[in-house]
Every structure is written in structure tokens, then in C-alpha cells.
Amino acid sequence: MIFGRVKPLDAILETAKKKSLHRSLGAFQLTMLGIGAIIGTGIFVLTAEAAQKAGPGMMLSFIIAACVCGVAAFCYAEMAAMVPVSGSAYTYSYAVMGELVAWMVGWALILEYAVAASAVSVGWSGYVVGLIEHLTGSHLPASVLVFTKGPFNGGIINLPAAFIALLIMSLLIRGTKESATASAILVVIKITALSLFIFLAIPAMKMENFHPFAPLGFSGISAAAASIFFAYVGFDAVSTAAEETKDPQRNMPIGLVGSLAICTLFYMLVSAGVIGGVGAQPVFDAAHQHALPAGSSEMAAACSTLKDSHVVCSNEALAWSLRKIGWNKVGNLIALAAGFALPSVILMMIFGQTRIFFVMSRDGLLPGFFAKVHPRFKTPYIVTVMTGLAVATFSAFFPVGILADISNAGTLFAFAMVAIAVLVLRHTDPKRHRPFKTPCVYLIAPLAALGCLYLFVSLPLMTLKMFFGWTVVGLVVYFLYGYRHSNIARNISDDEEA
């Protein structure tokens, strides 16, 4: 029975001891990695897309997404502290609900991390190109711009996005600790930039800019929440570093919950500054009956004439907002800070992706070469290179909005499975030591699962179709390879693993 292929928690922990990665991360580094993964394209870039879907109501969208992530964070913290090994939701599912569910979760996480890294790469490209244009005082010629945008946005290929993805890949090959140190520096830059934005934008707020608060109703707020969820998903990447964390029973919950709380506070203040400072009403069609779909060709055409008057048309919403309220030079500094800071998000996403590949390979569900560790840098370099190349390819040809929504679909599925796993394990193994327990678990865990389902069905229909298509491909791969080659299927013990 497929659902009977459950790898005991004790066996998972024993495997990690014998084939583990080097433990070098503490609570501070984990929190910095979490903030580095969370604060990024969601607030710097997707703010404009959220405004197009919900108007000022995007503030409520941020709250809804934060609440779903908050309850999920407690479930993640319990599992991560109890099972401090690489693999995140994949590993937890393997231990609780069996191999098939674990494979589906791992396959969804591949979609989450790789596509998310691509989305952030595209966001970084938008800020850098915009900064260059404002510093030079003129728009780049069309012959150059076509190489800064993918085909969906009227270009040929987004070379800046592909470049930053490959650069981060090279950094990750050199080592986890070095990457975490670099990420911490970038986080400081990012927090400073957002703090400066809040300090300058909040005093310029005008209450009339908040009306109408929900021009597209609650459905628009729900749609924006589903997209904005991308702004929070990075926190679960912290759990994939469990096997490289010192004292994970203490440090993992601190890193998960702490980074989420800090980021939520920043998000609320920044979104209030954008709405109150420059307004954030959607762009409607000519008859003013329907809001134009975000990321559509119709929206792109409208923005070609409205770029300087609507924040929803900007690829650099925060920098644009400061320039509109009179802080031109500071706006350029915000764009520069984004150019330096957004790579930390790409770093954490690729980091999480490679660790998922690493542990799935270690379990035999993927070929063994995925688990090979570099003899000098002690990192899974083969999967890092493969992931980096895939991220560069996606970011070169797809727009940020589509990539973010696709990533959200995989993330929401994985989060729901973790919440269910916590409940199941409370029944099947109630006496196991839990260094961190989810408070009010029979309320929090169901809320996490239902919240993820609510946001999942709020995603665009095309995104859902692509997710289910990806799932079908994953099942084909599993039954052609993983089903027969997994360690459990071949009765290979931890001692015998290659």
C-alpha cells in the first residue's frame, strides 16, 4: 500500500545524524534568513498588483494572508522543532501520511521555491531598470528594453533577471554560512530602506486616498490576498535549514515565528504609506465597469499612458510613491536598496529548493547524484546548479505576477499538509517529545488548513489548472521512478543508504 509507506520519525532522525549537513546556523541567523526570504518582491513589487485587484482594501488582504501564515507558522514550528532535518513539509508528510503524500508535497515545494526565486529575480530586474532610467533622466531605447522584459511583457528576454539568478547560484555553491552572512547584510539594507519609506510616507498620508476602500468588493480583497500570500511564503524556507541549525529545538521556533511577526508589522506600515501617500485605486476599462486584469495585455496597454499617474502601473511601487510625494532622491535610494536587497530572497528560495532535492534524493525518490555534496564547500552543488539554471530560465521569459501565483499554489498545498500532519501526529504519536507545541492545536491547525484552501481557490483559474497539470506530471515521475527506487520500496535501511 502506497499510503502505508510511512518512514518512522526515529528513522528520519537517525538518517540525518549519519548523512547530515554541517550545523552552523543560530537563532539570529535563522531570523535574518527568514526576514531575508519574506521581505522582498511581495512588498517591493506585488504591492502594485494587489492594488489593482483590491484598491486600498489590499491592507485587509495583507492581514488575511498574515493570519493564514501565522497559524501555519505555529504548525511549522512544532514540526520543525520535533523533526529538525532538511526537507520541510516533505519530510513531515513522509513521517505522518506516507510516501505518496510526501512526494506530492515535495513536488509542490519544487514549484514553490524555484518559481518563487524566478519571480523575485523578475522583480529585481524591474527595480534596477527603473533606477537606471531615473538616474540617467531618460528612458532606455526600445532596442535595449526588449532585453529587460520577457515575451509576456512585450520584450524578448529578461537578461538582468537571469543574471541575478545565476549570480546567487554561484554564491550558494560556496556554502551555507557564507550565504547566511551575506543575507544578513542585505537584510539590514532592506529593513533600513523600508523604515525610511515608512518615516517619509506616513506623514504624507491623506485619508481621502483610502476611499473607496474596497472598489471591487470582498472578492477583490480575496484575490489580492491570494497574490499577496507570496509576500509571506519565505518563512517556511527557514524550516528547510533545520539540519544545518545549532540547537534546532530552540532556534527553529524563534526563527519561524520571529521573522513572520517582524515582517507583518513592516508590511502594514508600508502598505498604509503607499495608499495614503499616492492613492491605490484600480485601473478600469473605458466604460469604467470592470477593473482590468492584472498582468494582462489590456493592463499593459492602459499603463503605457498612465505610468506616471497610477501606482498600479509601476514596476517599482515604493520608489515611485516616494518620488510622487516629493522625495525624488530618496526614491532612487529605495530603488537602489531594493536592487541590493532583493537578491537575499532569491538566495533563500534557491537554498530551500536545493535542500528539498537533497533530502528526496537521500530517500531514494530521486536519483542519488542529487545528494552529492561538494568535497570542499560541503554543499549539494549539483542540485544548486540545476536549480539555478531553471530559475534563470523561468525569470528570463515569464512576468512576476504569473510566477508569484503559480508559486503560491504549491505553497498553499504544502502548508495545508503540514497543518494536517500536526493533527494526525498528535493522535498517532501523542507521547513523543515536542520541544514546541502549537497552542490550541485543535483550533489553530484546522484554521491553517482551511485558510490555505480559501486562498488556494481565490487564485486565478489558469493558475489552478497549471498547478494540477504540474501535479499530474509529478505523479507520472513518481510511478515511473520514485515508487520503485525509494529506500522503503527496496527495503534499504539507513545504514545501507548510498
UniProtKB/TrEMBL annotation:
Protein name: Amino acid permease-associated region
One GO term describing the cellular component: membrane
Record-linked Pfam families: AA_permease_2 (PF13520)
Keywords for the protein's UniProt record, in alphabetical order: Membrane, Transmembrane, Transmembrane helix, Transport
Topology term for the membrane: Multi-pass membrane protein
Record's subcellular location: Membrane
Predominant cellular place of this UniProt entry's protein: membrane
GO molecular function per UniProt: amino acid transmembrane transporter activity
Organism: Zymomonas mobilis subsp. mobilis (strain ATCC 31821 / ZM4 / CP4)
Lineage top rank: taxon: Bacteria
InterPro entries (UniProt xref): AA/rel_permease1
Transmembrane segments: 27-46, 58-77, 89-110, 155-173, 180-202, 214-233, 254-275, 330-352, 381-403, 409-428, 440-461, 467-483
Organism lineage: Bacteria, Pseudomonadati, Pseudomonadota, Alphaproteobacteria, Sphingomonadales
